[in-house]
């Protein structure tokens, strides 16, 4: 029954389907479901480190193309060191002419919360080889607390199982009245 849903650009179609279903249900059975609106991130699609013409994807067969949250700092450094750029050493942002370097700038902005302009100001005077290491370090710092928490949870399986069971129970409690009201509205009760 959410009214606003944070989604990436590539999930907008899924949200539009949810909107259509809510509108059709409401038209047929009365106003019940809110029509959810998308909350889009300021960061658009992050591109592959190996092919900046496509988005970064967990399913990419090239291991060096995607940075995973659980990657070690050494793996992250290697992936950024091997990231595709071009033969111009200056760090600029021009996605059409310099997609590889622009992708690094976008990633850097996303993990630091800085604007593209601020990131470019910080990168002034750096060549792309050194800049890759700056971006890698920023990603490592951003992911460090998440990696730490994942490791902690993996080490305490009983706590993780309890969290999952508690979450499932809470979801059932929240969903049950909605489910019963839907059954009533459509005439199954």
From TrEMBL:
<dbReference type="GO" id="GO:0004830">
    <property type="term" value="F:tryptophan-tRNA ligase activity"/>
</dbReference>
<dbReference type="GO" id="GO:0070183">
    <property type="term" value="P:mitochondrial tryptophanyl-tRNA aminoacylation"/>
</dbReference>
<comment type="similarity">
    <text>Belongs to the class-I aminoacyl-tRNA synthetase family.</text>
</comment>
<keyword id="KW-0547">Nucleotide-binding</keyword>
<dbReference type="Pfam" id="PF00579">
    <property type="entry name" value="tRNA-synt_1b"/>
</dbReference>
<protein>
    <recommendedName>
        <fullName>tryptophan--tRNA ligase</fullName>
        <ecNumber>6.1.1.2</ecNumber>
    </recommendedName>
</protein>
<dbReference type="InterPro" id="IPR014729">
    <property type="entry name" value="Rossmann-like_a/b/a_fold"/>
</dbReference>
<dbReference type="InterPro" id="IPR002306">
    <property type="entry name" value="Trp-tRNA-ligase"/>
</dbReference>
<dbReference type="InterPro" id="IPR002305">
    <property type="entry name" value="aa-tRNA-synth_Ic"/>
</dbReference>
<keyword id="KW-0067">ATP-binding</keyword>
<dbReference type="GO" id="GO:0005759">
    <property type="term" value="C:mitochondrial matrix"/>
</dbReference>
<keyword id="KW-0436">Ligase</keyword>
<keyword id="KW-0030">Aminoacyl-tRNA synthetase</keyword>
<dbReference type="GO" id="GO:0005524">
    <property type="term" value="F:ATP binding"/>
</dbReference>
<dbReference type="InterPro" id="IPR050203">
    <property type="entry name" value="Trp-tRNA_synthetase"/>
</dbReference>
<keyword id="KW-0648">Protein biosynthesis</keyword>
């Amino acid at each position: 029954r959410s009214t606003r849903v944070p989604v990436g650009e590539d999930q907008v179609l899924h949200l539009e389907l949810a909107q259509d279903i809510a509108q059709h249900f409401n038209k047929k059975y009365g106003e019940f479901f809110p029509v959810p609106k998308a909350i889009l991130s300021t960061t658009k699609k992050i591109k592959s480190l190996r092919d900046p013409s496509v988005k970064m994807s967990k399913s990419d067969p090239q291991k060096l193309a995607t940075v995973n949250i659980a990657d070690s700092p050494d793996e992250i450094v290697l992936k950024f060191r091997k990231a595709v750029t071009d033969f111009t050493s200056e760090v600029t942002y021009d996605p059409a002419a310099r997609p590889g370097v622009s992708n690094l700038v976008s990633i850097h902005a996303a993990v630091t919360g800085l604007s593209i302009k601020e990131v470019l100001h910080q990168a002034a005077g750096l060549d792309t080889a050194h800049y890759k290491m700056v971006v890698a370090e920023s990603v490592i710092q951003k992911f460090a607390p998440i990696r730490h928490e994942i490791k902690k949870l993996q080490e305490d399986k009983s706590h993780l199982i309890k969290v999952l069971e508690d979450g499932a129970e809470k979801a059932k409690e929240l969903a049950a009245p909605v489910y019963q009201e839907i059954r009533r509205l459509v005439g199954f009760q």
